[in-house]
Amino acid sequence: MVRVESVRGREILDSRGRPTVLARVRFACGAVGDASVPSGASTGAAEAHELRDGDPSRYRGLGCRKAVASIDGPIARQLVGRDWAGQSDVDRALIDGDGTVEKSCWGANAILAVSIAFARAAASSSGVPLHAHLASLVPAPRSVLPRLTINLFSGGKHAGQQVAIQDVLIVPLAGSIDECLAMAFDVYQAAADLTRRRYAARPLRADEGGLAPPFPSTDAMLGDAADAVRSAGLTLGRDLCLAVDVAASHFREGGLYHVDDDRLDSAAMIDRIARWTRDFGLVSVEDGLSESDWEHWPELCRTIAPAATVIGDDLLCTNRARVERAAQSRAANGLLLKVNQIGTLTEAADARRAAHDAGWQITVSARSGETEDDWLADLAVAWGDQIKVGSITQSERLAKYNRLLEIERETRRPLHAWPARVPS
Length: 424
Ligand code: 2PG
Ligand code: MG
What we know:
Layout: E1 2-13, E2 19-27, E3 32-36, H1 65-79, E4 83-84, H2 87-98, H3 108-126, H4 130-135, E5 147-154, E6 167-172, H5 177-199, H6 218-231, E7 240-245, E8 252-253, E9 256-259, E10 262-264, H7 266-280, E11 284-286, H8 297-304, E12 309-312, H9 320-328, E13 334-337, H10 345-357, E14 361-365, H11 375-383, E15 386-390, H12 395-411
Parallel strand pairs: 5-15, 7-11, 11-12, 12-13, 13-14, 14-15
Antiparallel strand pairs: 1-2, 1-4, 2-3, 5-6, 6-7, 8-9, 9-10
């Protein structure tokens, strides 16, 4: 049992300069945990409610004073001065106290900040690293480190929609996080050179630090990524693979997917993804179809899995019921796990358990709006097969990579074997 002595919130700014929430939980034993929460741009319709002030005269309505007031007021009243058995106990009190399905009363941002700050304080009071404490919260925690999936090129909502798909990611196949990051650096620099040469453009960065030149087409975006890998002196399929987050919910209108100049129905979209998977050796495809196109996801899965993992992000929203539905209909075989989509660690662990039971891959993911907090790295080490943080630029991303380097040094664990290396 631990006694909570105080719970406080405050407003801080995220990587896009927008307000978000930080919570501090203090136990009577003196242990303290801080946590700040991220925020998405390409959000799923089924995500938990991010409470914003809505006052247009301040941060265009994006202020988080109401969420902070939830932490300092009703959440503190619920938790302070009582003894708690553990994470699920506290999360249950937060869920019940809010009382709404989407956490719109206290705000999922307020609730999540407290949920993670509680976990940090608990890790500190037990004298274990956060990843070890988070591992104790789930069945089948991971004993290998998560494989890095790193944003190289950005499009979609993260880059002013200059091209439909949101991310082209690189997946270095080296045997340590240290070596994978060095490889990613070489490819990123080669991609920056290519951006200057091919587009006469400065290598400007999108929300997650990915490069975002004015690609003439989606195929050009993928082709440029393959070229950058080659110019870095590396071989696709042997040293490194490509993956995509299509984020298709955000360019489907009237039942048609708007890709370049084409208007594709679901079957044609699946054909397009199958071709990209073949031509560029994609090892995973996230949100290849829209969150409302449930009926076609099984066909996408039949077409490209197991060569490529079919990951659900907007489709699943880290929601156990949605993961179970997808597992039952064989709509996906990978979960993108973002705790702020659901609002507490315990509910995210439930979604993870459903994905794990279905034999899926689990990618623990950051959001496009992030903070310099690094808890995501610990969460990915404990719960994930892959981690998706964005690019290898910008301190809110690098905080997570640097924490992974630290964990690698301390634990000397090997990296997850996915995807298998093609024998040379
Ligand atoms: C995604 C995420 C992170 P956002 O779609 O996977 O890349 O984007 O946080 O904007 O939802
Ligand atoms: Mg996504």
